[in-house]
Amino acid sequence: MGKLTATSIEVSGLHFAYDGQPPVYANFNLDISPGSRCLLVGANGSGKTTLLKILAGKHMVGGKDVVRVLNRSAFHDTQLVCSGDLAYLGGSWSKTIGSAGDIPLQGDFSAEHMIFGVEGIDSVRREKLIELLDIDLQWRMHKVSDGQRRRVQICMGLLHPFQVLLLDEVTVDLDVVARMDLLEFFKEECEQVRTINCNPNVKNDCSQ
């Protein structure tokens, strides 16, 4: 894990609007410390996913100092994501592994092939995630259910240790037991001074 800063996420005077639409955020400020577990709540269409994508560097907003993650520009510093220090798991991401859009790929490959195909991974962390998510390494990715596919995708997304993790309703396809186990894992990660910002799909998860 790289050098920690006093602030994991810092947003200063954010203004953001989609073309032809009223502002989603105007003069918005945010300061999140390392080790935090933050829950983002609001009505449908209130801009929760938009904010997470901005923090993940998926939207360019103002100058380099408007949105900073680990004291680096979320949009301009591509090394943030490439290094694994900043990780984003969301709905659009969930369709990029083992599928093309909403259509499963026809290639017959296993969960083991995908998970063990990620290089430079701590084998202990990998085995822990496989066990925690109850993944059968023999699952064929073109035949799995949505819940099974999501488990593999979450595992792959968490293989690299992160400093900041942004989650956008990634537990939607998981059963209650798997969801609670995953939240316990996130709690342990935060105890290592990592930061998690979550847009949950189940309000009962908040107590975790």
UniProtKB/TrEMBL annotation:
<dbReference type="InterPro" id="IPR003439">
    <property type="entry name" value="ABC_transporter-like_ATP-bd"/>
</dbReference>
<keyword id="KW-0547">Nucleotide-binding</keyword>
<dbReference type="Pfam" id="PF00005">
    <property type="entry name" value="ABC_tran"/>
</dbReference>
<keyword id="KW-0067">ATP-binding</keyword>
<dbReference type="InterPro" id="IPR027417">
    <property type="entry name" value="P-loop_NTPase"/>
</dbReference>
<dbReference type="GO" id="GO:0005524">
    <property type="term" value="F:ATP binding"/>
</dbReference>
<protein>
    <recommendedName>
        <fullName>ABC transporter domain-containing protein</fullName>
    </recommendedName>
</protein>
<dbReference type="GO" id="GO:0016887">
    <property type="term" value="F:ATP hydrolysis activity"/>
</dbReference>
<feature type="domain" description="ABC transporter">
    <location>
        <begin position="27"/>
        <end position="171"/>
    </location>
</feature>
